[in-house]
Structure formats: structure tokens, C-alpha cells
Amino acid sequence: MWDYLSDQHAWFIQSETSLTELRFYEQEAFNTIHDVDFDTRTLKDRWVDAIAVGYNGFYGVYGVPSS
User: What is the pLDDT of residues 13-39, one digit of tens each?
Assistant: First the structure.
């Protein structure tokens, strides 16, 4: 179930990803960076991930609205 669906009676089905025009691009792979401040003994963490999603058309995706 996709997270943004708000009606429990509506449903969608998607075929194999290679048969659809849905796109997912990973612009920057998930990465973590750690830094420790010696004087204050503070640990800093940074998590980075950049993605883009889109579509050329909803080929291979079918849905039914609620009744």
C-alpha cells in the first residue's frame, strides 16, 4: 500500500518496474558523516541522500477509485 493513499476502498496495482514508465533516480547515494568535538565531547552526525522521482506516463499502473 502506498503511504499517501487516504481511502481504504481505493486500490492500485503496478506491474513489474521494468514495464512501467515510472522513474527513480538516485542523485547521491545515502551517506553518513561523523564528527567529534574534542573539547565538548559532542558527537555530530549528518545523513545525506538525494533522490528524484517522476514518470513519463502511467503505463503498467492501474487504479480504482473508492465507491
Answer: 878 877 787 788 888 888 898 999 888
Q: Which of 3, 8, 10 is nearest to 64 (CA)?
A: 10
Q: CB of 11 within 8 A of CB of 64? A: yes
Q: Which residues, 6+ apart, have CB-to-CB distance to 3 below 8 Å?
A: none
Instruction: Return d(Cα 52, Cα 28) in angstroms, integer.
Output: 10
Residue 5: pLDDT band with limits 50, 70, 90? low
Using DSSP, state whether 18 is helix, strand or coil.
helix
**pTM for this one?**
0.41
Nearest CA-CA partner of 19 in 62, 64, 52, 51: 62
